[in-house]
Amino acid sequence: MKRFSYRCESSIYFSTPVSAHTWLLRCMPKAEPFQRAERASLSVGVTLDDGSVLPLSVSRGIDAFGSAVQTGYVAEKHCRFSILSEGVVRQTPYRICGTAHGMYLEHTPLTLPSGEMVRFARQAKGDAAKGLSEAPPPCGPVLEKALSFCFAVHRHMAYTPGSTTVSTTAAQAFALGRGVCQDYAHIMLALLRSCGIPARYACGYLVGEGATHAWVEFFDQGVWRGLDPANNRLLSYGCIKVAHGRDSADCPVNRGIFLGGAAQQNTLAIRVEEL
């Protein structure tokens, strides 16, 4: 078992005040067999026109995929929306025993593979464990195929922030040959599903400092395993999971609607440390 502290601090700045703001967050650890929160807190607030800070009440629930969601509403005009999520989780090696719903075999608009990707999946082979940070468990055919895809995608893509958007599809990112962790994950989902391997999108916080991270979970003989194609590794410890779904559209960290035509500027700082 290992223990990790996490801190996620985010703000949205509005160019002009907005009001009637309804928001939904996914920013707290998801209860899973491999991770449990020893401590988890969330504070949400807005900055009003006069510069004062108004703390907001938070309602908690569960989405259709079993991930924790936090929701609320603020009527007052405000120019900044801020969240702070922090706590401590304990983890065992990344394994989730269970079953695989048929929807994780179905392509979505974001994960539909191109013909070029299908050919790429058929050709992916070689040293599946190359570059992994630790030795993988004994390889069956599913794990071997998934590791081969992970290495092939990592080699094909160049990590290039700003080259894609949240609406970029797997096929578009694959054709570009560059993107961010979300794109790597969408491409992996497309390849795995095209070979009949159930797979789902997962997101959360990675050890170190930065932004949110995305990876995939694939189903192998009764067990969901985590695979991070952006870093070419089979996950064991150090990824604090907050949500999963069919693709990134199922698990945004922050989604909201409000009255006002303001432009938005987002800031996000995440830190995860092993204790």
UniProtKB/TrEMBL annotation:
InterPro entries: Papain-like_cys_pep_sf, Transglutaminase-like. Residues 173-231 form the Transglutaminase-like domain. It holds the Pfam family Transglut_core. Gene3D superfamilies: 3.10.620.30. SMART domains: TGc. This is Transglutaminase family protein. It comes from Mailhella massiliensis.
